[in-house]
Specification:
Elements (H helix, E strand, L loop, with lengths): L6 E3 L8 E5 L2 E6 L2 H10 L8 E3 L11 H32 L3 H27 L8 H22 L7 H22 L14 H24 L4 E13 L5 E11 L5 E13 L12 E6 L7 E2 L4 E10 L9 E12 L3 E3 L8 E2 H6 L9 E11 L2 H7 L2 E8 L6 E7 L6 E2 L8 H7 L2 E4 L3 E4 H10 L1 E2 L10
Length: 469
């Protein structure tokens, strides 16, 4: 009798699993009498061996196998459905995000995706054998992560276009809510043991390090604004023998004096014949002599970099002009390079003339001379997922004496323009991408002075005027 083994079968848990102990040693859990016999046979206990029943006798087996397995399968599929987009976003951002903070976020998302996969494996154990005491806790963590991520995606999409990720977010919110209720009913947290001693110093140090990293690598770069300087100045003037025409050289420049790299979307400069500048002079009093571009569209301006061009302006019949002054001004439109990437060849996307008329879309300006367009990718994959497809369109508008640039940053089919006379009209594009209109200071010089300098300089050959853009 001393060698008789003591077999104990515990009471059913919330799902109907009954733990089996032999001589006080746990050997597994069983869902039915058939599984109990198989387990005892594997442990070398003969059929008919006396069993000590705790809670309920051997006739009570509340497990519903098909319902349990269907529930477990739904939880596994939901966790894997969460892990897949997280892996996709994390892999893209960890290597290709435009900012250091974005890459850290990508690595974090990858870690979360791994946790979801582990939770899926734990769900198999929780709804089958429960060999691991913490499987319920891990599944609970995975479901809470899914609920948090899906709610976050939906919050980020407020005001955005309806995308596939909207559908995924809604589906996962519903699924995770139902799964969370089921896990609460099953008391999945029972295996969790709260440690008595917590390393407060380690936690505080970690929080301080994370806060410092977030401030220096995420917050500071985000709030740093571009500092772009642009301007024009008159240089020399000369005249052909015979007194006409007169050629005036204008120096145009744009410089990135800040710490943020930018794309130059468009540039324009105006040369006007103007009266003097008393307070009653109107914009309509200026006579447009010349306008054009002076920076290649799509060019990148890194911090400290400058682009300059000398434009030669031809003035026919300079003596007959009634100008008091020549007026020059430049303007550029830039967008932050650390918040978006041009996905197509923007500088070669120019469309003009009949082709522009053929490709006219609803909402396009009717008096456009040319158009540049490119699709853009946001600074991170998570923003691409929540914002959907975006693109930049730039038009040059023929508008009498003051042609101007019109910029549109919006999803295809929408029109969210950036009016030149209202630089803060599109706050969304400004906040998201740092879209900025930079108008340089006005350069103005007396017309008679230019004419006298040109007359005093004899030229055998005239310079080639800058072609119109």
């Amino acid at each position: 009798m001393a060698n008789t083994r003591v077999v104990t079968v515990g009471a059913p848990d919330d799902l109907g699993l009954r733990k089996v102990l032999i001589d006080g040693r746990p050997v597994g859990g069983v869902w039915s009498e058939k599984e109990l016999k198989r387990l005892l046979s594997c442990e070398g206990v003969a059929d008919g061996h006396p069993i000590r029943w705790v809670g309920e006798d051997g006739t009570y087996w509340p497990d519903q196998p098909w319902m349990r397995r269907i529930t477990g399968l739904c939880v596994v599929l939901g966790l894997l459905a969460t892990a897949y987009p997280l892996f996709k976003i994390g892999m893209a951002d960890s290597g290709d995000a435009l900012t250091y903070g974005g890459r850290i976020a990508g690595v974090t998302i990858l870690v979360v995706a791994v946790v979801e996969v582990i939770a899926a494996g734990a769900a198999v154990d929780f709804w089958e054998t429960r060999r691991w005491p913490y499987s319920g806790v891990v599944v609970l963590v995975g479901v809470v992560i899914t609920l948090f991520c899906s709610i976050s995606v939906l919050l980020l999409q407020i005001g955005e276009r309806f995308t596939n990720y909207t559908v995924i977010g809604i589906a996962l919110v519903v699924w995770s809510s139902v799964a969370l209720v089921e896990l609460v009913k099953c008391r999945a947290w029972k295996g969790l043991r709260i440690p008595r001693n917590i390393a407060i110093g380690v936690i505080v140090s970690t929080l301080l390090a994370v806060a410092n990293l977030a401030y220096s690598q995420v917050y500071v770069p985000y709030v740093t604004t571009p500092l772009i300087q642009s301007g024009a100045e008159f240089r020399e003037s000369n005249m052909e023998k015979g007194g006409a025409p007169m050629y005036v050289t204008v120096h145009l420049y744009v410089k990135n004096a800040g710490q943020v790299p930018v794309y130059v979307l468009a540039s324009i400069y105006w040369i006007h014949g103007a009266p003097a500048s008393p307070p009653d002079v109107k914009m309509s009093d200026y006579d447009l002599i010349y306008d054009g571009q002076f920076v290649q569209p799509g060019q990148v301006l890194n911090p400290g970099e400058e682009v300059a061009q000398d434009a030669v302006v031809e003035i026919k019949d300079p003596v007959g002009r009634r100008y008091e002054a020549l007026r020059a001004q430049a303007e550029v439109y830039v967008i932050r390079k650390d918040r978006m990437t041009m996905t197509t060849d923007y500088e070669r996307s120019k469309v003009e003339g009949r082709e522009l008329e053929k490709n006219h879309e609803k909402g396009d300006p009717l008096d456009a001379k040319f158009r540049y367009r490119t699709d853009i990718s946001n600074s991170s994959e998570i923003l691409n997922a929540t914002r959907g497809q975006q693109r930049v369109t730039v038009w040059k508008i023929a508008s009498g004496q003051w042609p101007h640039i019109k910029v549109d940053v919006s999803p295809p089919g929408d029109r969210i323009s950036f009016p030149p006379n209202q630089p803060y009209a599109n706050e969304e594009a400004i906040d998201r991408y740092g879209l900025t209109q930079v108008r340089g200071s006005v350069a103005q010089t007396p017309y008679k002075e230019l004419l006298e300098k040109a007359r005093s300089t004899e030229k055998g050959a005239s310079p080639v005027p800058t072609p119109a853009a």
